[in-house]
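Board work, copied verbatim: Protein HflC
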Amino acid sequence: MINNRTSIILILLAVVFVGLYSSVFVVNERQQAVVVRFGQIQDVKTEPGLYFKLPFAFMDADRVQYVEDQALRFDLDNIRVQVSGGKFYEVDAFVVYKIADPRRFRETVSGDRDSAEARLRTRLDASLRRVYGLRGFEAALSDERASMMREVRADLQADAETLGLRIEDVRIRRTDLTQEVSQQTFDRMKAERLAEAELIRARGNEAGQRRRAIADRQVVEIVADAQRESEILRGEGEAARTKTFADAFARDPKFFEFYRSMTAYTESIGSSDTTLVLSPHSEFFRYFNDSEGNPPAATTTQPATGN
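↓ predict structure ↓
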């Protein structure tokens, strides 16, 4: 009898424990909870804490669906967009969002993130094509890019609100030219650089020729000035030499004659291979015959007398 009573008490305690355990749920700081009772949303818990619900969810009573209460992100890669000039970009973008209204999120997509992100991807793709299509080739690479992202964010926000979401940010991770446009752009840039190089080279050649012409003219002027100066100095030297000789001749004509004769001897017979055919009594050798340089006395020839 006692054993039966103990068993009943244990069973009752177990039922109470299971009932309490199944009626308690915890929401942490990164979660929100939607309480669903018989398929209808009964309550939404957005603050962390310990909460109660009807037990025994297997009987289709209260069930708890958790959704994130933090920034979420999804990416959209390799989107081919056309700008107003007809060229194409390949764009990678990402979106950061939060579940702002768990009740609406549950009602529209049954709390399924994949379904919500699929709808946002479709809208993001269309918005990127529209925003890029309204602008030229250089816009996505300029300061206008920030305003383009604000437009895309505004487009997404309207759809996000219908899903119970809030768009926190939209960013472009990559904007590249497509392969064919990249090659065309490279060829155009190469041609521009080559043309610029030729222009710079032509300007350099022109400047070089101008500098060489100036240098050549300066060389001619310097050489001419040097030659003129040398001729002036040579003339002055010759004048000084002539004056010196004239002064010497005026002071001592005999010494001047002697000096000139010695100079002539040095220049004419100073070399060992010089040969002179002259009479020893010629005027040239007068200082050999007489230290005063007097000419030799005339030789008289006596006539022969016959016996």
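Helices lie at 2-22, 102-109, 113-133, 145-162, 179-251, 253-269, 286-289.
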